Each structure stands twice: as structure tokens, then as C-alpha cells.
Amino acid sequence: MGQDNCKPQPGDLIEIDRRVYQHWALYIGDGYVVHVTDQGAPFISGSIASVTTKKAKVKKELLTKVVGNDKWRVNNKYDRSRTPFPVKEIIRRAERQIGREVEYDVLWNNCEHFVTNLRYGVELCQQVENAAIGGGAAAGFIIAAGAALAGMALSRR
């Protein structure tokens, strides 16, 4: 397991490098993260809607299990522009979500949106914003949908 930061602190955002996208989790302490993961449902079908919209489950899992052999880092990148909740509040917000089924949409409600909402109270996703700004909304959609197809396991490990 490659990592850029040795010791995350409770409330930290964890960015995990997958092959064509980044998966995000929130570190809650004692080696555990809270994150959204797929339900194991098939993701390829006849309509584009099935690629971009689905249900996800909020899980508490060991960081090492979620990361597998991928590289990861602590990335509280939005701290420059947003004020995080106090750590106890972040953890409380995360723990209330464990076990819930939530809507998942690669563009508007993905794993980065989920964890930034827990930390800051606002859903942010630079991956999608960068794709949309870099090549227009249509290109952003295609990039995000391609990432979803390639990595729809979100974090099936």
C-alpha cells in the first residue's frame, strides 16, 4: 500500500488513487474510514442513466481494506476556502450515516461530495468541476461517465 501521509487524523479526507478516478473516504480514527460504496449491483445496461445514477451504501471499514494496493493521501484541500466542522462534529455526522443507503450519481452526488459534506457541510467535487471546466459540460460528463464505467466498484474491496 502506497501512502503519502503516514498518520491521518480523525476528520481528515482520504483521497485514494484508483486507475482512472479518485475514491474518497473520511477518516474517523482507530484505522477506520466512512465512505460510500456500491451495493454490488450491475452497472452496465442499455441506458446512460444506469451508469450515472444508482444507490450506494455508507460503510465503516478499515482504511487498509478500502485502499487495498492503491496509493492514498490525506487531502483536506478545501480547508483553504472552507471551514471544517469541529472534529467531534465531523465524526458524529459520519457515524450517523453508517449503514444508510444513499443516492449515488457520478456527477452530482459522488463519494467526494459525500465526504466533503461531512467535513464542511457543503458538497464539493473538484474532479467533476475540473472536467466540466476543462472541456465543457458534455466533455465533463463523458469523462465522469467513463470513470464510472471503469471504476464503478467505487470501493468494492
Provide an overview of this structure.
By secondary structure, this protein is of the alpha+beta class. It has one domain (13-151): endopeptidase fold (from Nostoc punctiforme) (Alpha-Beta Complex), CATH 3.90.1720.10. The chain has 5 helices and 6 strands; from the N terminus they run βββαβαβαβαα. The chain has a 6-stranded antiparallel beta sheet. Strand 2 and strand 3 form a beta hairpin. Helix 3 packs across helix 4 (111-120). One of its GO terms (biological process) is N-acylphosphatidylethanolamine metabolic process.
How helix-rich are the residues, as a percent range?
25-40%
Note the beta-strand portion: 15-25%
Shape: globular
CATH superfamily: endopeptidase domain like (from Nostoc punctiforme)
| Alpha plus pi helix count | 5
Q: Which architecture name does CATH use?
A: Alpha-Beta Complex
Uncertain segments = 41-51, 136-143, 145-157
Radius of gyration: 15 Å
Mean pLDDT: 79
Structural class from helices and strands? alpha+beta
Number of structural domains: 1
Main sheet properties: 6 strands, antiparallel
Number of strands: 6
Helix and strand element order: EEEHEHEHEHH
Strand order of the largest sheet: 5-1-2-3-4-6
CATH topology: endopeptidase fold (from Nostoc punctiforme)
Name the CATH class. Alpha Beta
Distance between the termini: 14 Å
InterPro entries: H-rev107_PLA/AT (IPR051496), LRAT_dom (IPR007053), Papain-like_cys_pep_sf (IPR038765)
GO molecular function: N-acyltransferase activity; phospholipase A1 activity; phospholipase A2 activity
Keywords: Hydrolase, Lipid metabolism, Membrane, Transferase, Transmembrane, Transmembrane helix
Family: Belongs to the H-rev107 family.
